[in-house]
Amino acid sequence: MYRSPMLSKDLHRALINEHLQKLIIIVGLLFFLLVSLQAPAQITDQVVHHKLDIQLLPTLKMIKGQDTLTFPAGSPRKISFVLHKNLKVTVLGHEDTIIALHSAFKSEPYTEYGLTLGSQDNQVSLSYSGVIYDPIKDNSSGGLISSEGATLFENTYWYPSVLDTQKNFEISIRAPAEWTSLTQGQLVRHETNGSTAVTQFKEIYPQEDLYLVAGPFKTTETETSAGKRLGILLREDNPSLAQSYLSVLPGYIEHYSEIIAPYPYESFSVIENLWETGYGMPSFTLLGPSVIRLPFILTSSLPHEVLHNWWGNSVYVDYEKGNWSEGLTTYMADYWQQELLQQDRSYRMKALMNFADFVSANPALDFPVRQFKDRHNASSQAVGYSKSMMIFHLLEFRFGKELFNKALQDFYNENLYQKASFNDLQLSFEKTTSTKLGVFFDQWLDRSGAPLIELTDVKNTQKTDGTFQATYILSQKQSDLYELAVPVVLTLDSGQVLHQLAKLNEKTQRFNLVAASRLKNISVDPDFHLFRQLYNEERPTTLSSILGSPSLHFFFNGNKGDSLQFIQAWVDVLDGKNHLHNINDSFVLPNEGAIILVGNSDTFAEFMKLQLAEQAFQLSENEMSINGTSYKLNEISSVLVSRLKHHPNQSVVWVRWNQETPPAEWAKRLTHYGSSGVLIFKGRPTVLQTTWPVTDSPLQRKM
């Protein structure tokens, strides 16, 4: 993910409007407020230049700063800005004045000020200082300065910020000599004078946000073939970890530079944060101490955050018109990595499964892609990441990789350092492909849900000339029809495999094929190229079918307190309605919702043996065997997911753990394994992560 600056701005604009309404009764400020309320709108999308001189005082948790702001020509004389509520600010010019429009209410992190420009040069200098320290709680902080380091976001309000404006800047940062300071922009100067290090950066291109990270980092650097600096900034020296990042970073930078445009910044850094984060800022990614050490980050989050320097951090997102960046970045980074492993089919299937489990299972959580701004739960991620990613795949599947990349190159060049929307993407794809795509974008972006395809009436007929005609009917089962290009794979008796792209625009359509050999098998979208609803029979049962259920039935042994610890951990993070059933009272299953069997129990063991009778699964008093491999129960923790025999639309999961596994901590980790249906852990590591085989799909027919 990348940090979504506009979300905080949306919230703060709403809060500002609320406070303006409260203040409107103050007659003395009425005129000023009305003018300042208009001011940001008049300079929106124009660039404010900041010349910043910053001093960090870590032991005092303080910042001292001076900011000379230069406003674009034609700016109003009255302008409002926001600054962290703990910072005291004064204006340095004799002709300029500031007034506090309102102090921070409750948990607001900022105070809003009104600025009146007295001189005619559109320039004002402000001096400010104070403490910035939002303590880390539950791996979250709004920004802080401490002896361990400083992490300051846009919504930390660590410098005078005029909301809804872009900015470029020059910044000089003074910090302890052993510290490294970093922000986006070109490094101009770094020198150490006694106990103080002075670092200067300059950014001439318009930015959405301004960040500052500093601390006593151990830095390892290299350069790309194009001369871009790459750095790994760690809290403790770890050459092997640093090298693991530097071994892959140049390739990611060069890959995206080739298919989109040259890398838009002078450097890229991987920085270890003070708490667990996974943020992508312009020219760096901020990863938590545990996150940065996860081996899969190198081929998952890392290329994702690198790519955000093109999508989101140099072509900006017009959030009011929908966040296109996450879906596109997921497709070109996460999905691309799976393509390299030849696991792209599986990744597409998992995207459809995420939508089925977290959205289709609870339609009240569904919404059109164009309304997506940022993920805040599993259902919003399934729409804004999974569905959006599949829409970009549909475009590449239709036009091919070469035209797809050319369209994105056009989109990038036309919108560099500007806010862009899905409409701008549509214009670039239409221009590049010479195809009108209004229907395509409207149906996928402005509708919720997904089409459901049905295959019926498959027939073989031998003609008088000895050839064979195969016919089949495809139908759309949902109420609103789509214009679809449905991949169909036909296998003949001769062994020949033919591919059709069935244009399905009506409720029901018949299609045919004439061939020299008889049709043996037909498969509709077997590789999941189309965004659509899945049938239960064509997908493995996974943990996400439990996690996304609107109704969760927990069964547990009331005599075992650790079971309640596990249950509480899931209740805290899952959105479904919770029902608790103590098996000491009864073990009667409901006919709706997901079934969660919690803890070691002979009752649960016997029940799961019945559900998994057709799988390669055996269970005894001391051992569990899966696909021929045996595991001792006292050495492992396990997760087994299945569909109920008597009710295939319901899923059941049995979670059990050994004495060395903390149930609450383990429960939270399990929420990250939604695409798995079988999990075996020995301690923290997984020794088995898979799914049970699927049965025949309703979208396949054998003749």
In brief:
The strands form nine sheets. This protein has a seven-stranded mixed sheet with strand order 4-7-2-1-10-13-12, with no helix packed on it.
Strand order of the largest sheet: 4-7-2-1-10-13-12
Q: Mean pLDDT, nearest integer? A: 91
State the CATH superfamily name of the largest domain.
tricorn interacting facor f3 domain
Low-confidence stretches: 1-44
Termini Cα gap: 47 Å
Q: How much helix is in the residues?
A: 25-40%
CATH class of the largest domain: Mainly Beta
Number of strands: 38
Would you mind describing this structure in some detail?
There is one protein chain. The chain is α+β, with helices and mostly antiparallel strands. The chain folds into 4 domains: 1-204, Immunoglobulin-like; 316-445, Neutral Protease, domain 2; 453-533, Aminopeptidase N, middle-beta domain (Immunoglobulin-like), CATH 2.60.40.1840; 544-690, 2-Layer Sandwich (Chitobiase, domain 2), CATH 3.30.379. 27% of the residues lie in helices and 34% in strands. The protein is built from 15 helices and 38 strands. It has a 7-stranded mixed sheet, with no helix packed on it. A hairpin with a 2-residue loop joins β32 and β33. α8 (378-399) packs across α9 and α13 runs parallel beside α15 (663-670). The longest helix has 22 residues, at 378-399. The radius of gyration is 29 Å and the shape is globular. The model is unreliable at 1-44 (pLDDT under 50).
Strand-helix topology:
Blueprint: H1 5-23, H2 27-43, E1 47-57, E2 62-70, E3 78-84, E4 87-91, E5 97-102, E6 110-116, E7 123-131, E8 144-146, E9 149-152, E10 166-176, E11 180-182, E12 186-193, E13 196-207, E14 212-215, E15 218-223, E16 229-234, H3 239-246, H4 249-259, E17 267-272, E18 278-281, E19 284-287, H5 301-307, E20 316-317, H6 325-340, H7 344-360, H8 378-399, H9 401-415, E21 419-420, H10 422-433, H11 438-445, E22 453-462, E23 468-476, E24 484-492, E25 497-504, E26 508-515, E27 519-524, H12 544-547, E28 551-556, H13 561-573, E29 577-582, E30 594-598, H14 602-611, E31 617-619, E32 623-626, E33 629-632, E34 637-644, E35 647-656, H15 663-670, E36 678-681, E37 686-690, E38 700-702
Parallel strand pairs: 1-10, 16-17, 17-19, 20-21, 28-29, 28-30, 30-35
Antiparallel strand pairs: 1-2, 2-7, 3-6, 4-7, 5-6, 8-9, 9-14, 10-13, 11-14, 12-13, 15-16, 18-19, 22-23, 23-26, 24-25, 24-27, 27-38, 31-32, 32-33, 34-35, 34-36, 36-37
